[in-house]
Amino acid sequence: TTLLSPCRQIPQEGAESSLRQLLVEAFASAGRVDNITMVMGLHPQYLSSFWKTQSLLLRMDGPLPYHTRHYIAIMAAARHQCSYLVGLHREEFLQVGGNPAWLQGLHCAPQKLRNLSEINKLLAHRPWLVTKEHIEALLKTGEDSWSLAELVQALVLLTHYHSLASFVFGCGIHPKVDQDGGHGCRPPSPHSDSGSASDDSVGGSGGRDAVREVEVLMERMKLLQESQLEEEGVTQEEMATRFELEKSESLLVAPADTADPSLRSNVLCFVEDPEFGYKDFTRRGEQAPPTFRAQ
């Protein structure tokens, strides 16, 4: 929590230059600087690690085709009804050549992907219930079986996006009015269906556009930081009072996903057994459930 709390100072010149370079690279690679990147930009070192992880998972060499990776991200985010991430990766899925028919819902996806639904459900809500049998069932020889390498990457993607959905909710991240998932322009041409992603350069007109876009974003971030600096005179007691007021008021407002039925249907179509949710791991006086331990 401390790591991701708003900064109290505008970044110094060196840090600002480093952040600008990170945003340029993100823009040149993905064609946008999404709102998650903007929030994490308050902590450039954290953003750098996060962005490298995202690139490795989604754009670098691996056993899964690019469109499959994005569909798995959709499945994971939908499990927590995170419409922001679902919308973001629906667009990414199409940009890398995914079949639009799959976006009608999980029932339209290949059986191989649908077979991930059960372990996706457990990992999202009650991971202690995962057993070796769940893994064996997915690896079982057959037309829709997963290789071990594919399954490892799929499980990493699922758990990554379960966690990222919590970050999105915790920071109150929403798409912009145009629903494109963030600041950006038309993304670059999709990579091939599988294999290594080509290295994106920041040269040419695309690079110049990226730099201009990032300059605008940096200025917005400065204004945000300056407005925070004006709050320095606020006492801890006043801040606590404001927090309690905001918390009590927020409890009276239904979440956006619940308030908008069409939004919920666009997310829940990727979910099987939507009523399945978190349940306490163990209660006093009850025997703890068996767990699957992998060291």
From TrEMBL:
Disordered as annotated region, ranges: 179-208
Where in the cell is the protein located? Cytoplasm
What is the species listed in this Swiss-Prot or TrEMBL entry? Bucorvus abyssinicus (Northern ground-hornbill)
Report which reactions are catalysed by this protein: a hydroperoxide + L-cysteinyl-[protein] = S-hydroxy-L-cysteinyl-[protein] + an alcohol
Q: What spans are recorded as compositionally biased (Low complexity)? A: 192-202
What keywords were assigned to this record?
Cytoplasm, Oxidoreductase
Name of the protein described by the UniProt record: SESN2 protein
- Cellular component terms (Gene Ontology): cytoplasm; nucleus
Q: Does the keyword Nucleotide-binding apply?
A: no
Tell me the GO BP annotations in alphabetical order.
cellular response to L-leucine; cellular response to leucine starvation; negative regulation of TORC1 signaling; positive regulation of macroautophagy; regulation of response to reactive oxygen species
